[in-house]
Amino acid sequence: MSKSTISIFGLGHVGLTFAVCLAHRGFQIIGYDIDEEKLQCIMSGKAPFYEANLDELLAAVIRMKRIQLTNNPQDAVSNSSITFVTVDTPIKPNGSVDLSSLAKALQAIGQGLRRKNNWHLVVIRSTVPPGTCLKVIKVLEEYSGKRAGADFGLCFNPEFLREGNAIEDIMNPDRIVIGEYDSMSGEALEEFYKQFHGEKLPLIIRTSLTNAEIIKYANNAFLAMKISFINMIANLCEKLPGADITEVAKGIGLDRRIGLSFLNAGVGWGGSCFLKDLKALIYVAKENGLDLPLVEATISINDEQPLKLIELARKLLGTLENKRIAVLGLAFKPGTDDMRNAPSIKIINKLLDEKARVVVYDPRALHNARKIFGDKIEYAVSSIQCIQGADCALIVTEWPEFKELKPEHFIKNMRTPCVIDGRRIYDPKEFEGKIKFAAIGLNQLKHE
Ligand code: UGA
C-alpha cells in the first residue's frame, strides 16, 4: 500500500525530527514553517539545531526526494491527507500559554481545507492547555467553512520525545496517545501509525481530546516530580553520615511500582519543556479554582538545586573569590546544545556573583554559552584544557567524555585537585584519599 502524503506545520525540534523520521519510513512530507531562513537551512541538509543523527537522516531523505518544503501553507494542506501541527506554544510570564503560533497555523490550515473536496485529518502535536482542542474545532470550522466530523477530523496526539534521543523516541515510543474528536479521526490516525510502525506497533491509547491534553502535562509533571523528589532526598543524604543517594535511588527504584528511571539526583532538571509545562499546568488549575501544591514544590525544589553545587564548593574551598572554577558541561543534558533553563546558567551566575574566575567547556553548547555570558567567562576547547590550573572542577552535565576523566587527570592538570560531582558520574571510591571530592547526595563516612 502506498504511503500517504503528510504535511507538517512548524519545523522546530519536534516537527523536523518527526518529519525526517516519517520520510525515512517512506512517507512523502510537505514541511511548512513561517521562518524562511529555517526552511533554507533545512533544504541545505542541515538541521537548525543539534540533535543526534538528525543531519545524516535529513540529508538522506532530501536525497531521496521524500521531503519538500513550502512557504505556502494552503498548498501544504491541499496536497496532503493529514496535517500535523507542531508549532511552538511558549508560556507568557504569568504562566498562561501563548497560542498565537497555533492560531496562525489554524487559520492557514482552515483556508487550505476550504479548497479541499475530500476529508482531511488535522493532528495537533504541539503541547496545549487542556480544553484547547475543543476550541480548535470551532476555529477550523470558521476558516474552512466546513464541518468537523463530516469534512475534516481532529486529533490531539502528544509527543513524548526527549531532546538528544528524539529519533529513537519517535521510532520506538513506549505508547501512542490519540485524543480524538470522533472515531473516524482516531481510526485514521491509528491507521497512519500502523503504516509507520508496521509490525512493531506500540500500544495505542485512544481517548478524548481533553484526556490526551491532560496526559501530556501530567506526564511531564510526574517526571519532573520524580527528579525533584530524588533531589530532595539527596539533599537529606548529604546531612547523614554514610548516606549516598545513588544507593538509595537504586533501593527505591527496584520497587517495580516506582521504577529506576528519572531517579538520577543532580543539579536539577532544565530544558524547554518541564518548567513551561509545569507552570502552564498550575495556571490551568488556578483558572479552575485549584492549587497544585505538589507541582509547585517540584518547581521550587528545582529552583534551589543548582545552588547546592556552590554550597559544596564553598565547603571544600572556603571563599570562591578569585578561585579558578572549571565548569564541565553547559547543556541542560547530554546529547544536545540546548541551554534553555540549564542548571549551568544559575551555577555560573552564582560563581560570578561570588567573584570566582569561571572557565567552561561543553562538547556542543559553547556557542550558546557565548551568547549568554560573552566575555564574563573563559571558554575551553576540551575538558583537559578546562581543568588546567583550576582550583575546583564542577560536573554539571553528564557528557560521556567527562566520565572518562580519572583522578589522575585532575591531579595532573589542576592547581588544587578538587572535584564536585553534580551528576553522580564518578564512583566516589575511585577518588577517595586521592583528591578532594564531593558529590550531590553523598556523605562519605571516612571523611568525617
Ligand atoms: C522531556 C520529557 O522527558 C519528554 O518525554 C517530553 O516529550 C519533553 O520533555 C517535551 O515535553 O517536549 P527533555 O526535556 O528533552 O524531555 O529531557 P529529559 O530527558 O526529560 O530531561 C529533562 C531534565 O531532567 C534534564 O535537565 C536532565 O538532566 C534532568 N534529569 C533527567 C535529571 O536530573 N535526572 C534524571 O533522572 C532524569
Features:
45% helix, binds uridine-5'-diphosphate-glucuronic acid, Rossmann fold, 448 residues, 18 helices, alpha/beta, eight-stranded mixed sheet
Give structural notes:
It is a single chain. The protein has helices at 13-24, 36-43, 54-63, 73-78, 100-114, 132-144, 166-171, 183-197, 209-239, 245-253, 274-287, 293-317, 343-353, 366-373, 383-387, 400-403, 407-413, 428-431, and strands at residues 5-9, 28-32, 67-70, 82-85, 120-124, 152-156, 175-180, 203-208, 324-328, 357-361, 378-379, 392-395, 418-421, 436-439. The strands form two sheets. It has an eight-stranded mixed beta sheet with strand order 3-2-1-4-5-6-7-8, sandwiched between helices. Strands 11-10-9-12-13-14 form a six-stranded parallel beta sheet. Helix 9 crosses helix 11 (274-287), helix 9 packs parallel to helix 12 and helix 12 packs across helix 13. The protein has 448 residues and is of the alpha/beta class. It has 18 helices and 14 strands. The longest helix has 31 residues, at 209-239. The model has no long low-confidence stretch (mean pLDDT 96). Strand 9, helix 13 and strand 10 form a beta-alpha-beta unit. Bound molecules: uridine-5'-diphosphate-glucuronic acid. Uridine-5'-diphosphate-glucuronic acid is lined by residues 159-163, 220, 223, 227, 262-264, 266, 269-271, 273-274, 332-333.
